[in-house]
Amino acid sequence: MPDKHLSSQFDEDLNSLCAQLLQMGGLVEQQVETAMRGFTELNVDLCNEVIEREKSVNAIEVEIDSACVELIARRQPIARDLRLVMAISKAITNLERAGDEAERVAKRSRRVIEESANYKINAAEIKLSGQMAIDLLRQSLDCFARLDAVAAVKVVQDDKQIDEEFRGFVRKLITYMAEDPKMISTGLDLLFIAKAIERIGDHAKNIAEFVIYIVKGSDIRHTPQDNVIREANS
Prior knowledge:
Helices cover 85% and strands 0% of the residues. The protein contains 7 helices and no strands. The chain has helices at residues 8-40, 44-75, 79-116, 124-146, 149-179, 184-216, 225-233. The radius of gyration is 19 Å and the shape is elongated.
């Protein structure tokens, strides 16, 4: 959470922004969890629930972004405070995009259920990477709440595991589709689901990188991981 200031109202404004970010994060996390349940349980109702709630995520993003702009205009924050506000503005964009990916998972899952409910492709990697993405998103939000740069590094590192699961599933999927061309349509839907999950992990990683930016003042995006670790621990 932000540091204390002479102006109690300024503290309240910053705390309110952080609270709104975490509230939005909780909603997006719920969206991802519900989308994955819809996929694993072959439940159309759960998929529809995710799709219907997507507009709420978009509305919250607009509301928080507007509050960030207003705070900058009224308070003219500097140094770490400015980094915090800018990071919140960027983090909610990543959350909104993670919500978009959850909706994509729901839509593709619904299509698989309606058109190919008895698909024979083993999608264990999707289920595993989906849970990993949920965990990563939760950890990144926890890092943001505590402004814990060291824990944020772990999120950045763990994102690689989701990438590996995605690559492994793609290789398996190609084999399935080559052996049975009838599975190509379903295979493509599953590929889009797997890619959406991989992107959710990327957005969680981005949020963790913003934590390091707030705490250390260094933009470590597109930076080799060894440098990220050194920066967070310096």
